[in-house]
Fold this protein.
Amino acid sequence: MKLDKENVIIICITIAVIIAWALIYPKYQKERAEERARIQQEKVQQYNTQTTAAPQTTPAPTVVSSTDTPKTAAPVTPAPAVSAKVITGQRYVTISNDLLEAKIDVMTSALDSITLKKFKVANAKEEKLVVTSANTKYKSLQPVIGNAKCISAAAKKINDSSLQIISKWSDGLELIQLISLKEGSYLIDVQYTFVNSAKNQLLIPEFLVWSAGVPPTQYLAGDKIYSERHNIDWHIAGAKSVVTGDPEAKETKFKNLNSDENVDWAGSTNKFFASILFLDKVNGGVAGGMRVDRTYHAKPEKPSDQYVQPYVGLALKNVTLPAGQSMTVSSMRYYFGPKEMNEIAKLPPTVMDAMHISYFSWFEFLARPMVRFLVWMNSLCNSYGIAIIVLTLLVRLIFWPITQKANTSMRKMSKLKPKMDEIREKYKSNPQEMNMRMMELYRVEKVSPLGGCLPILLQIPVFFALYSALDSAVELRQVSFLWAEDLARPDLIGPQINLPFFGPTGLHPLVIAMTLLMVLQQKMTPSNMDPAQQKVMMLMPVIMLFMLYNLPSGLTLYWTVSQVFSILQMKYGQIIAEREEAKNAAAGTAK
């Protein structure tokens, strides 16, 4: 490569950007971690202060006279449930179905842990994926009843998949919570019934049920993720679209996610799993919106940095209960499971908008059908690897005419290179005349300088969607194909070694094959660039090799098959063009 002035400038700018990034980004990470730690410490101090001061203050009463008129009350700041006396002497009770095993903490009437029976932790062949509530501020299905406190709780196991918890709260309130599972479902059904044993009517300003959201995939299941998606989503009843928030947003912006509108479901998702709470039935009150909170946890691999676990809660406001009466105030459902298309299709249609399959929302409508096709093709051939190959070939066949047109246009442009160079040399001192001569040449030869670019641009949205679909499909997680043990991870063969800047690295055949095919494809592609530019372009495969070396094998399989198809199509086009040229030459000679 010729090191002229322009190339030297580009290289220097690139080196400067890399050095600046290496110096600035760690500092930015450190400042962000310190800010998170400060916010977390403030919350802890605030909670400790409230706890210490509790005996000296009188909580807002929840009992009102039956002659009082209930008034709209301001939302009560939720407080973690206090330790309750377990009458049965058994604090934890487990219920299960064929997909889930839920361990329930009777003290908090909430889920202490969930075991996903079909899923395993990363790099494990036997260890099932268990999601615990250890070190979390709230647990899923944890109820908060205004300022009332839980005094005692007892559990009654109805059968292997159903449990009833009866808890007594201050001010004479009794809560009956019925938790049940259904076979073949990741949904947990919950029914909340209030019993007012007091002599006066009860007014509960806010009844809130929390859902412990999912942390990033790496800290939930151990997967090393190439590109994560971590979101909070909720749906306002009657709205056409889903609202999305960032769990890592700045504190002010995060607090603004709280809503007093009628939210019928809310939850959080990462790349592969979802935690969603549905409000199905409301009695004796009004739907009071959504509440959000979050906890920062230290990253095991780098304790100085932190990751976020969000919480979402659904609330009812102004629940009134006459003296001596009981009422089922709400029925809820809680989904904790994979973002599998077949499972999400069983939920309300709006939940599909919270799956975030595509990197960019405007490609979502293309990515979803591709994942569905993958699932359908796997049901036919029982191999997601073959399904990826078939999907890739199908997309390439659909775009065959457009790609062929682009290749033909580039081939014609490359043959005009000598004439174009001649015009540039002849009119190099007169750019306006040179452009006019070029346009005239294009008109006479019936070619367009954009003929090779526009057809390719039309394909970009589809290939972005295909890339996103393969990268996001939890269906590919821990599924093997050929030598690849997991289509959601790189296709490692042999041992790993620690390399500077890269860490543990091994041999990934598919991405290496992808790079070699990229070089071959560039050599075969007709081009009218000068030799120096062509040499610079030949560096692109090497750069891509380093940038994409740890891509999941499902993606590199798609990319490799796609490049093989492109090379074969290009070769086919060359053969057809040579035959046409030979035919035209023979016709000219005969004439």
User: Anything to note?
Assistant: Residues 83-352 form a domain with the Beta-galactosidase; Chain A, domain 5 fold (CATH 2.70.98.90).
